[in-house]
Amino acid sequence: MKKLFSTMLISLLCAEALLAQPPVQKVVTIKNGNLNGILRTVKDLAPGNNLLISTDNEHIILSGPKDAVTGFEEVIKQLDVPPVAQSNVEIDAYMVVASTRADSHNPIPAELEPVVAQLKGLLSYKSFRLLDSFVLRARSGERGENSGSVEPSSPAPEGVKISYHFEFNKVRVDKGETARLVRFDNLRLDINAPVGINTKGEVRWSGASIHTDVDVPEGKKVVIGKTSGIEGSDGALILVISAKVVD
User: Fold this and answer.
1) With left for phi above 0 and alpha for psi between -120 and 50, is residue 5 left, alpha or beta?
2) How many CB atoms lie within 10 A of CB 145?
């Protein structure tokens, strides 16, 4: 109880000391940071310090007891720093179709051969071919998306194509134990493919998706996931991506 009383007494004395000081005014120029963000932080800290805070959109103006003004001027200087430069990330995405049927007409690109060699040892598919690929750039901390379409391998009515949409909510770069990691939040690939024609001559469609959060070591090709229902029940779509930080 005595400790609580002492604390309250010290607080009252400090408040009285501030009130006793003649008011001063200080105009602080914001040179590097986000003025509105700094202003919000200072206002959150200010209650109880008898400080008036305003801005003219270039400066923060402090009015009040000298000690409070001096103290908050230092706080502003600590907050007024250049924003951290955001990295640009380049993503290579590959959509690979795996099939239980042998197919030698669509060779895999050389850059995917090591990945396919691993897949052959893990999955019971006889052939792999590249359906489509694309390159996407996004800034660290931001979302990214890409859409496209490609001709199906099986016959389909004119103009009917496989369509896909790729997106992620956020990409960021973190330091891993041996290499940088490119982290994807809520990465998603949705694909819609024609799988046949019904008795009325209408196209039958099959939709599938891959949805996950994933960490990709920079420069490595990583299998993100697979989904069935593409070009028939005996095939699967496998998503492979790699990512690197670029200037």
Assistant:
1) alpha
2) 12
Residue 27 pairs in a beta bridge with 61
Quote the Cα angle for 89-139-182, to 5°. Answer: 45
What is the arithmetic mean of pLDDT over 49-74?
A: 86
**86 C-beta neighbours (distance < 10 Å), count:** 13
Q: Tell me the C-alpha distance between 95 and 240, whole Å.
A: 6
Torsion of CA 148, 154, 158, 160, to 10 degrees: -40
Task: Name the nearest CA neighbour of 38 among 76, 86, 5.
Answer: 76
pLDDT at 233 over 60: yes
Cα 55 from Cα 35, distance rounded (Å)? 9
Cα Rg, the chain, nearest whole Å: 30
Cα–Cα distance, 233 to 230 (Å, whole number): 7
List the domains of the chain with CATH numbers. Answer: 19-79 (3.30.1370.120), 88-246 (no CATH)
pLDDT at 13: 41
The 3-class secondary structure across 77-126, one letter per residue, is HHHCCCCCCCCEEEEEEEEEEEECCCCCCCCCCHHHHHHHHHHHHHCCCC
The whole-angstrom separation of Cα 148 and Cα 134 is 9
Q: How many residues does the chain have?
A: 247
CB 175, CB 211: distance < 8 Å: no
> Is residue 224 helix, strand or coil?
strand
Q: Quote the CA–CA distance of 98 and 171 in Å, as a whole number.
A: 28
| pLDDT per position as a tens digit, 137-180 | 999 989 999 999 988 776 666 778 889 999 999 999 988 777 78
